[in-house]
Write a structure and sequence with these properties.
This protein has twelve helices and no strands. By secondary structure, the chain is mostly helical.
């Protein structure tokens, strides 16, 4: 295991590596566990990644881990944890001038505040974070941030703007072939179109595509999330309420 090899001194880091490999391995291992539905081991691995980064006094890798931890907490709808990790990330990044990690901290904090009901301030933070990410040129992180912006806009009853954010996110996902975002993008687009009263056949196809994609990728949380959203859509459709207050059950 990566942490065992590191602890025995078998792994050497090189000067040009700006992220400690063992920390990155712990993060990716943790998130792989989460996608397979192994939540407990995922959290344990992320906590260990934070500990290793602190022990090594590697602040850049610590920022990386805090960012992933905030994203995981958002996926699990643990708003207090999102805000805590985002606040720690913002403080650390400000102190060490980590422009990219600071931007992601702003996005995650803004999302948490938006979901908590403070949409005006929350969306402003998300938008600032996205502007800062663009300034760094790190385009591969934009689909995640645009997705969070879309969710915040949707909860603020701005479904048309949310759809615009998803359009941009999907364009980036397609151009850069970021396959792990497709299921979530389909779910969000289907939900926004349902609120806007779009064609039911298109909406159904999007939700079915979200479920199918998650299954193909063996992504347990995304599959459950897509099925939950689709079931809620069908329930509200049967009651005649789709397009009149249909709401996305986030994760």
């Amino acid at each position: 295991m990566a942490d065992q090899r590191w602890s025995t001194g078998d792994v050497q880091s090189y000067a040009e590596e700006y992220l400690t490999p063992v920390v990155s391995c712990q993060i990716y291992w943790a998130m792989s566990e989460w996608h397979f539905g192994e939540n407990a081991s995922c959290h344990a691995l992320l906590e260990e990644a934070i500990s290793i980064a602190k022990e090594l006094k590697d602040m850049n890798s610590l920022a990386q881990t805090l960012s992933w931890a905030a994203g995981l907490a958002a996926n699990e709808m643990n708003l207090a944890e999102v805000d805590r990790f985002a606040s720690d990330l913002i403080e650390l990044s400000t102190r060490h001038n980590f422009a990219f990690w600071l931007a992601l901290g702003l996005v995650n904090r803004g999302w948490a505040r938006s979901v908590s009901g403070d949409s005006a301030e929350g969306i402003a933070w998300i938008e600032q974070g996205i502007r800062d990410i663009r300034a760094t040129g790190a385009l591969l992180s934009l689909p995640y941030s645009l997705g969070r912006k879309a969710e915040a806009l949707y909860l603020a009853d701005r479904a048309a703007e949310a759809l615009e954010a998803i359009n941009e996110a999907e364009a980036l996902v397609e151009s850069h072939e970021i396959g792990d975002y497709w299921s979530r993008m389909h779910c969000l687009r289907g939900t926004f179109l349902a609120t806007l009263g779009a064609d039911e056949t298109q909406i159904e196809a999007l939700f079915c595509a979200a479920i199918r994609t998650a299954k193909e990728q063996k992504d347990v949380p995304l599959e459950k999330s897509a099925e939950k959203i689709y079931a809620e859509y069908r329930r509200q459709k049967a009651s005649g309420s789709v397009g009149r207050g249909f709401r996305l059950p986030l994760w």
